[in-house]
Amino acid sequence: MHIWVDADACPTVIKEILYRAATRTQLPLTLVANQHLKVPPSAFIKTVQVAAGFDVADNYIAQHVCAGDIVVTADIPLAADIVEKNAYGINPRGTLYTEQNIRQTLSMRNFMEEMRNSGQASGGPPPLDQRDRQAFANALDRLLAKT
């Protein structure tokens, strides 16, 4: 099992939870981003810097993920690819992407993108709060215990 992180937009507090989890479980953790990332020194934590560009980090993760891996991302199209490959997807708020919910989640994402593009909606989700951080940590622990 491997933990992958779509790290460009992943909140620092979530990365810190992941660093502790990788060290505790001794599972490999790879953060993929189009910028240099500072991570704590660890034999279990590494970064991959990809070229700048639309979906480059997402494509890297999608190409390297294996069944049973965990992927942390808020990117719904990437999550759909992950679920299709029988990997576990989790967003920074602790929501698991599953075969049962990914189509509806993708449809809602596309609808909201259309609304934003037409000017009928703006903004994004609120900042992470303590409840979100706890939900993520709990969901991650459940996944790690399951695998």
Short synopsis of the structure:
The protein is of the alpha/beta class. Helices cover 44% and strands 15% of the residues.
What does this entry look like structurally?
Strand 4 (70-72), helix 3 (76-84) and strand 5 (88-90) form a beta-alpha-beta unit. This protein starts with a strand and ends with a helix. The protein is globular, with a radius of gyration of 15 Å. The chain is α/β, with parallel strands linked by helices and 147 residues long. Helix content is 44%, strand content 15%. A six-stranded mixed beta sheet has the order 3-2-1-4-5-6, with helices on both faces. The protein is built from five helices and six strands. The chain has helices at 12-25, 56-64, 76-84, 102-117, 130-146, and strands at residues 3-6, 29-33, 45-49, 70-72, 88-90, 96-97. The mean pLDDT is 90.
Helicity range: 40-55%
- Helical/strand content category: alpha/beta
Low-confidence runs of at least 5 consecutive residues: none
What is the distance, rounded to the nearest whole angstrom, between the alpha carbons of the first and last residues?
8 Å
Descriptive key words:
44% helix, 5 helices, 6 strands, globular, alpha/beta, 147 residues
Topology:
Blueprint: E1 3-6, H1 12-25, E2 29-33, E3 45-49, H2 56-64, E4 70-72, H3 76-84, E5 88-90, E6 96-97, H4 102-117, H5 130-146
Parallel strand pairs: 1-2, 1-4, 2-3, 4-5
Antiparallel strand pairs: 5-6
